Amino acid sequence: MTTMTRGSLALLSMLALLAVPRAVSAADVAMLQGLDKITARVSTFEAPVGRTVRFGTLAIVIQSCQKRPPEEPPESAAFIEINDMKPGETVVTLFRGWMFASSPAVSALEHPVYDVWLIDCK
Fold first, then answer.
1. 93-98 long-range CB contacts below 8 Å, 24 or more apart?
2. Rounded to the nearest 5 degrees, what angle is found at the Cα of 100, between the Cα atoms of 76 and 61?
3. CB-based contact 65:26 (threshold 8 Å)
4. Contact criterion met (CB below 8 Å) for 116 and 97
């Protein structure tokens, strides 16, 4: 018998959430938080699905934002693409995948200056 980590269980829970279309609702806006590690400032911002928002040198695009209905255990997940767009340099894709509000460490953005995580879909 294998031992599952907390992150693995959260990932399986989210995959089950996404596998049952009637159990989730699509949202128009993702609520994100970002940390600038240089200034130690935390910012909360909205990112509409399909539109690019900027956080420092990052360009963030939410492809999909899913949320369980109120009668289910709370969970939100967003498929996010994050690119680093420094002036005069080529664009670098830093993250492309699902982020989960209940388990930000399962799929986190790894960047020396910025942290970004999903709070909710609305």
1. 94/58, 98/14
2. 90
3. yes
4. no
Structure tokens, 29: 């806006």
| Three-state SS at 48 | strand
Contact between residue 79 and residue 49 where contact means Cβ atoms under 8 Å apart:
no
Domain boundaries, the chain: 6-121
- Residue 58, token pair as written in the block: 């990052």
Q: What is the pLDDT along the chain (122 residues), one digit of tens a residue?
A: 445 455 554 455 555 544 444 445 677 999 999 999 999 999 999 999 999 999 999 999 999 999 998 888 889 999 999 999 999 999 999 999 999 999 988 888 889 999 999 999 99
24 neighbors 18 (Cβ within 8 angstroms): yes
- The one-letter amino acid code at 74 reads P
What residues are paired with 5 via a beta bridge?
none
